[in-house]
Write a structure and sequence with these properties.
275 residues, alpha/beta, 9 helices, 11 strands, globular
């Protein structure tokens, strides 16, 4: 097996099973050496907790990149998640241009919104900055809300194929592969739409009742890990979507686990599938 080194740039939510606390173990389970740049440290994620503590690490990012460049450390892929500011997006663009190996993908999860709303602390200026990052990306992994914001399209909950195709057209216009999550046309289903080389394909699976925090980060991490193991984009989508569904099913019914999904006991199935 070809041994890959992946850099992931996103925050550390110390409690919450999202961002780096899922990306690092999932990418490692996929067999990749995983390096990290923490965009910030939060006591807990912003989706299910109040009064969380936050410390930004923006000022450390240029020094980290400069040290790696001096040491001759480069990456087979760069994968970004939650970024705290437009300034951080600029540093990520610098990191990708200076430390990503030739031909290596920049994979961007524009983690900034869901359910028709931006996450706490983000505004229209941040969306404009995120457009710059997604324009430079080789692969973009938005949900429906993020795709609508990035394309200036009205957000809709009652999506149809024409709406999805419009989002895919706009997001892929620069040549990027787009994986649009949260796509389901029939009751009780969800999945993803993949636009690659001008062609659209879909992966559909069962939709569980209720929502869970952190599943987008788990999907993006498993997708990236599977892709770097040689899976095609549609194959990586299937691996990631099935893994997320298994994680949710492993958590449903546990009322005390409201802040994320219990993905750790399911990692073995991901390893077996990729192995």
């Amino acid at each position: 097996m070809d041994y890959k080194r992946i850099l992931t740039v996103q925050d550390i939510s110390c409690i919450g099973q999202c961002s780096l606390t899922v990306a690092l173990p999932i990418l490692s389970a996929c067999g990749a050496e995983t390096a990290v740049v923490a965009s910030g440290v939060l006591s807990a994620h912003t989706g299910g907790f109040r009064g969380y503590a936050f410390g930004g690490l923006t000022g450390e990012m240029p020094g980290i990149a400069a040290h790696w460049k001096k040491e001759g450390l480069f990456f087979d892929a760069v994968y970004t998640g939650y970024l705290g500011s437009a300034e951080q997006i600029g540093y990520v663009l610098d990191i990708a241009s200076g430390l990503l190996k030739k031909g290596g993908p920049l994979i961007v999860d524009p983690a900034m919104a869901d359910g028709g709303k931006l996450y706490a602390g983000f505004d229209g200026k941040f969306v404009e900055s995120m457009k710059q990052l997604t324009s430079a990306a080789d692969i973009i992994l938005p949900n429906i809300t993020e795709a609508a914001l990035l394309t200036g399209t009205e957000y809709r909950e009652d999506i149809d194929e024409a709406y999805v195709e419009h989002l895919l057209d706009a997001l892929s216009s620069g040549g990027a592969t787009v994986v649009l999550t949260g796509v389901g046309f029939e009751p009780g289903t969800t999945g993803a739409a993949i636009r690659e080389n001008g062609k659209t394909s879909y992966y559909t699976h069962e939709k569980t009742a209720g929502g869970c925090h952190g599943t987008g980060d788990i999907f993006a991490s498993a997708f990236t890990g599977a892709l770097m193991r040689g899976k095609t984009a549609p194959e990586a989508v299937a691996v990631a979507a099935d893994f997320v569904l298994a994680c949710i099913k492993n958590t449903v019914g546990d009322e005390n686990h409201r802040y994320g999904v219990k993905f750790e006991p399911v990692l073995g199935s991901l390893i077996s599938r990729l192995g």
